[in-house]
Design brief:
Strand order of the largest sheet: 8-18-17-16-15-14-13-10-11-12
CATH architecture of the largest domain: 3-Layer(aba) Sandwich
Structural class: alpha/beta
CATH class of the largest domain: Alpha Beta
Number of helices: 17
CATH topology of the largest domain: UDP-N-acetylmuramoyl-L-alanine:D-glutamate ligase
Distance between the termini: 34 Å
Number of strands: 19
Radius of gyration: 26 Å
Largest sheet: 10 strands, mixed
Number of domains: 2
Length: about 500
């Protein structure tokens, strides 16, 4: 965004104040949508260009006859040149810029406000809030007024979604030209409320040609191939799932059923022989088979011989749900990674099995897709303390040559080429055991149906979250189960675009 602004202002000679005025008008329009007739507003500004957006928005509101006060956090002498232009416009309309001072009087004023505009810090913030800025954010959050943030809520780091000390909790965020990662990545995404993306005068050809390897997966991005009328089950993937152990019979069943429900043609499920009878009774459409296991009901390393034999003729594999942990498991997972050449999804205990020697990922003879939650990611050596989830996921994927699906609110999928995709579906209703098993089955199924890896993985993540959202709408956040998500997949898949492959 900074580079596009620079190019338009310096090379195309578009005045920066004109872009700022356009941005300010959009912020003011969002505020007007929330203001009742005769409502009162407050605007909090910083000294940077984000503050200029707020000053300009205040001027537009004054033109509409809105009763408001405008507060500056910082020294007026440090206002940017474009912000000074907005201030001149404000003063020509009779408005004043007050220095911010935390007081009971200000608290009383805010208690009578209907809307507050937050324009303290924008996308350039990289350090924790302190001093008057911290006090101002606390006062905004303590108010009952509806809050409109300009570009991004003050306190949210735009590139990572990190909260820098504290952050404004906005009802609406008006951002300009393109969304930023911090609008979608937790925890910053929680602060944004409704996100509005508005044009401010940057030509669309410049936006279209801008290089960005970070993408938000939106409804229009999710497409499934149309099925030929003369096709058969062999056209839609022969999958091999290796999962389960004594005490963990739900995970393999959920993964296998999800794979079938999302369109897989044939699903073979290898489980420890100790639970084979249970799985055979649970599943009708999928085909379980027994594998050698130890006295604890976990697979033995010698199972790898049969797994390799069964893998012949399959075109994608899922390894991990409910397998449990053991030294044999580590050997089995390592052997599969080294010796198979079809895409392998590593989930749950397959991820834990390689945690002590992640270098095995770089020795793989096949495409690998890892689906860790944050705890499993940390066991793999992932560190989110410095760069946040997005940067850490991208770094891990590039270093180890694998696709990483870092699960959580706003799941992030990172690819070895440096590109990453932030999911935009899913919510707290899915915070139940088994949800991850469903996702793993969906991913391997779409891979098995020969979708390109990027599409298969990101589509599965999106549809998984969409099905969860649909369940929440019907059942509420408390009562959704993993089986409910599977049952909702038909509605979720019907809602996306079907195209000729």
């Amino acid at each position: 965004m900074r580079e596009m602004d620079r190019h338009v202002i310096e090379d195309l000679r578009v005045p920066g104040a004109a872009l700022m005025s356009n941005a300010a008008e959009h912020v003011a329009a969002a505020a007007l949508e929330l203001l009742p007739l005769g409502g009162r507003a407050a605007v909090f500004c910083g000294t940077g260009n984000n503050g200029g957006d707020g000053i300009g928005a205040a001027a537009f509101l004054l033109e509409k006859g809105v009763d408001l006060r405008l507060f500056l956090i910082g020294n007026e002498e440090k206002l940017t040149p474009d912000s000074v232009e907005m201030l001149k416009r404000l003063r020509s309309l009779g408005g004043t810029l007050e220095p911010f001072f935390a007081s009971d009087g200000l608290s009383d004023y805010l208690s009578g406000c209907h809307v507050i505009i937050d324009a303290i810090f924008g996308i350039g913030l990289n350090s924790d809030l302190r001093g008057d800025a911290l006090l101002a954010v606390d006062m905004i959050n303590a108010s009952d007024a509806r809050v409109v943030s300009a570009d991004i809520p003050s306190g949210v780091q735009a590139d990572t979604g990190a909260i820098l000390g504290t952050a404004v909790m906005a009802d609406v965020t008006v951002t300009f030209t393109m969304a930023k990662p911090g609008h979608f990545i937790e925890p910053g995404c929680i602060c944004c409320g409704e996100l509005l993306i508005r044009e401010i005068g940057i030509p669309r050809d410049i936006v279209s040609s801008s290089s960005s390897n970070v993408h938000a997966v939106m409804p229009e991005d999710v497409k499934l191939p149309k099925r030929r009328r003369d096709s058969h089950k062999g056209d839609y993937g022969r999958l091999l799932i290796i999962a389960g152990s004594v005490g963990f019979t739900g995970a393999p069943a959920l993964s296998a059923r999800a794979a079938t429900r999302i369109g897989a043609g044939l699903v073979f499920l290898g489980v420890p022989e100790a639970i084979y009878g249970i799985m055979a009774a649970k599943l009708d459409e999928e085909m379980p088979f027994p594998l050698p296991c130890d006295n604890n009901g976990r697979l033995k390393a010698v199972s790898s011989t049969e797994i390799l034999r069964r893998a012949d003729g399959c075109n994608a594999m899922l390894l991990g749900p409910g397998l449990g942990r053991s030294s044999d498991m580590t050997k089995l997972v390592s052997s599969s990674i080294r010796r198979l050449n079809m895409p392998i999804v590593l989930d749950a205990d397959a991820i834990n099995a390689i945690a002590e020697d992640v270098s095995v990922l770089r020795k793989a003879s096949c495409p690998l897709i890892l689906t860790p939650h944050i705890g499993e990611f940390k066991r793999l050596g992932g560190d989110i303390s410095s760069g946040g989830r997005l940067r850490s996921a991208r770094k891990f994927s590039e270093k180890n040559g694998c696709i990483l699906v870092l699960k959580g609110h706003r799941t992030i999928t990172a690819f070895p080429d440096g590109s990453s995709y932030i999911n935009t579906t899913g919510g707290p209703a899915m915070a139940k055991g088994g949800s991850g098993d469903v996702l793993a089955g969906m991913i391997v199924a779409l891979i098995g149906q020969k979708l390109p890896l990027m599409e298969a993985v990101t589509n599965a993540v999106y549809l998984h979250g969409l099905a969860g959202d649909m369940c929440a709408a019907d059942l509420g956040d408390y009562s959704v189960t993993a089986s409910d998500i599977i049952a909702m997949l038909p509605r979720a898949t019907r809602s996306v675009t079907i195209h000729n492959s």
